[in-house]
Amino acid sequence: VLVRHHYLSLDPYMRGRMNDGKSYAQPQPLGEVMIGGTVGEVVESAHPRFRRATRWWAWAAGRNTAWSMPPARRAAQGRHHPCAAVALPGRGRHARRHRLVRPGQDHRPKAGETVVVSAATGAVGSAFAALAKARGCRVVGIAGGPDKCRYATEELGFDACIDYKVHKDAKPCPRRSRTPAPRASTATFENVGGWMLDAVLLRMNAFGRIALCGMIAGYDGAPLPLAYPALILVNRLKVEGFIVSEHMEVWPEALKELGTLVGSGKLRPRESIAQGIEARPRPSWACSRASNFGKQLVKLI
Amino acid sequence: VLVRHHYLSLDPYMRGRMNDGKSYAQPQPLGEVMIGGTVGEVVESAHPRFRRATRWWAWAAGRNTAWSMPPARRAAQGRHHPCAAVALPGRGRHARRHRLVRPGQDHRPKAGETVVVSAATGAVGSAFAALAKARGCRVVGIAGGPDKCRYATEELGFDACIDYKVHKDAKPCPRRSRTPAPRASTATFENVGGWMLDAVLLRMNAFGRIALCGMIAGYDGAPLPLAYPALILVNRLKVEGFIVSEHMEVWPEALKELGTLVGSGKLRPRESIAQGIEARPRPSWACSRASNFGKQLVKLI
């Protein structure tokens, strides 16, 4: 099939691929077009099951059109989830959010638990919060600036949000933020790393779990030391890093659950859309650390 | 029963109790006698089931004799394990070693896996190594100085041992030690923390597990920052802190397995015994970081 890509997804992992270090992702070869998540539609087809106008998602180079080979088991997913908000903003992201929820019975956030989410207003954090709220958790976000914090509590459903920009390091954070986060947290969905992870460690309950989804604080090459790793021992914490693409088995369930949340209005993904790839050439944009909210997209046509 | 204590066990956790910080253990109150693991014998009894000369272990103040109230379910254990090497050197230690082995099916060291053990020649590390060897693992130790490393490989059964004293920090460690530890490790039993844990992180395989049993590098109050926590994410590691006393359910099994290893000569615990508590008043002795080998004991009578 020949696919016309309508949207390209910009995500923090792309910045990681620009480093020439050992990682789970192949470094981006110089002089080649970056690959990213796309959604679009079939404009030509030589395949009996996929007609023109079929919605299409892919990992593809950021170009307007590309030939694509339909994998055998794609059909059902493509038809059951026409909603772009669920099907696109990185299917990866959806599964990621589920990792803390579904690694095993005893790790699932339970009703009444306090769950902390860093990079709270990003595409990952906001969807994770919706999932945790649907399970009855108290969800506390960490975000940068009063606008994002207000957005978190007023639109995304967070019970509280801590503005990390009013703190310089981890130490005063737990004290000053006593009002929004009076209870220590039992589970953390960590996307940032660095001193923010230290701040989280200082407020974790005994036997707490930390799902390490990302460390965007270090994507520009800054060192990411941790000052209080001894708290992992003192508080008998579980810390686990994970990569979404290695948990494909939970994707169908994740898509269904997220689709339900979007359909019922409990998850209202916000998108920042740039017109054309020339509009936003700075790689830091993908990390959404500045003025952008929610999912970062580029409209290609 | 009135018990005469023959031996007092000195252990790293005692140093931790001398800090006035929040921890899993109560801080030691000033002016009171330190509590520790003891073995001894009953010298007077008002209890029908425990006669004179019954072997006795307890958590007790480091005094020669003390009255003790027999708990209901102690009897069997006291009689089935007369071997001081198994019954004493901290029953806690035995369960600790089992924690990495028995948290769940998928976490057990499997035959052929490379397992790294820091503080390798200590009471904990050496017994853990014997258990891992019995399961067919390749066991690499980390210890301080050529004497301890030779002891690890020649007497304790380690396949290799890295002398951390020839390294100044984590970075050169993996390169220089290519000969003794050519393969990256899949599981680590960590007792030290600090840059040695960084060195371990730099050599962990993807999906590796780190059981965090102790962080003796920080027991004197030195800060214990971690330089490469991002590797937990990059390599999708599981890191888990645990405290032996919270896993009592594995103690009977641990005692049986360790008893078998001692009985068959596969585990030959080495003890450093001081005569009288006055002989070794320095708290650093309990951390066995200097010239002592194996389990640290004080003979009280």
- What share of residues are in beta strands of chain A? 15-25%
Number of strands of chain A: 12
Largest interface (C-beta under 8 Å): A-B, 32 and 31 residues
- Low-pLDDT parts of chain A are 74-105, 174-182
Taking the sheet with the most strands of chain A, its summary is: 6 strands, mixed
Structure class of chain A = alpha/beta
* Number of helical stretches of at least 4 residues of chain A: 10
Mean pLDDT of chain A: 77
- SSE ordering of chain A: EHEEEHHHEHEHEHEHEHEHEE
Fraction of residues in helix of chain A: 25-40%
Distance, first to last CA of chain A: 18 Å
Oligomeric form of this entry? homodimer
Q: What is the CA-based Rg of chain A, rounded?
A: 19 Å
Q: Which descriptor suits the 3D outline of chain A?
A: globular
Give descriptors for this structure:
homodimer; 301 residues; alpha/beta; six-stranded mixed beta sheet; six-stranded parallel beta sheet; 10 helices; 12 strands; globular
